[in-house]
Structure formats: C-alpha cells, structure tokens
Amino acid sequence: MEEKKEKRVMEKEMMLEEEELEEEMEVEEEMEEVEEEEMEEVEEEEMEVEVVEKMEMEEEEMEVKEENEEQEQQKERALQPKKQRLVFTDLQRRTLIAIFKENKRPSKEMQVTISQQLGLELNTVSNFFMNARRRCMNRWAEEPGAAPGGPAGAAATFSKA
Per the database record, which ranges form the Homeobox domain (predicted)? Predict the structure, then answer.
C-alpha cells in the first residue's frame, strides 16, 4: 500500500512538475511575444524617425534650392541694364496737360486712345494722370488760397516738372 501511495505521490509530483513546466513555458512564450511586440514598436518608431528625418532633409534641400534660385534671379536682374527714365516729348507733354485740364480722370478707353495717339504705353498714360492729380492735391495743400482744379493751378503744376 505504501508503494501505491508513493507511486501516487510521485505521479502527483510529476503532474505538478509538468504543470509548472507548462506554466513556465506559457510565461516564456508570453514574454517572447511581449519582446517581439516591443521590438516591432521600436522598429516602427525607428522607421517613423527615419521618415521624419528624410522629410526634414528634403525640406532643407528645397529651401537651399529656392535660396539659390533667388540669388541667381537677383544676379540676372543686376546684369540687366536699368530701364531709362521716360522723358515726354514737348508734343506729348502739352497734349497730356491739355487733356488733364479738361478731364482729371479720363476713362480707360480714353487713356487707351491717348496712348495710341501719342505712341506711349497705357500704363505711362495712366501714371501721368495719377501723378498729375497727386501734384494738384499737393499744390492745394501747400497754397491755401489756390482754387482746386482751376486752369491756372494745373498749368503751374506742370511748369516746374
């Protein structure tokens, strides 16, 4: 009987050892899974860092390219001869002044016609009328007794220019 007991005890011990071994194996497997997951997370983070670093480098490269292009454009502009200041012929000046005396704000269509008749660019004619109006306003501000828009004021405005 004692042999049976010993046998049972040994069987129980063996079963316990097997269970412990199984538990240990399960724990080891779980630890391996956790380690694998951690490794995957680390790899993903490293990949993300690499992607971010690559994007930052590309941005820096783009900025350098843009700066180089800007510098090249500035060099090209510096090499181009400066546009000369336009001096109206006597006929052009007298015609523009006469039209300004009659109409301080000619329409765009009228300005196009004037530019074609005088052989000037549209923006030159537009600028003339804008500057002439500004000069008149400046004269009125400087001379409190001057009548705004009067022919004498307009003639005085252009006699010094």
Answer: 79-139
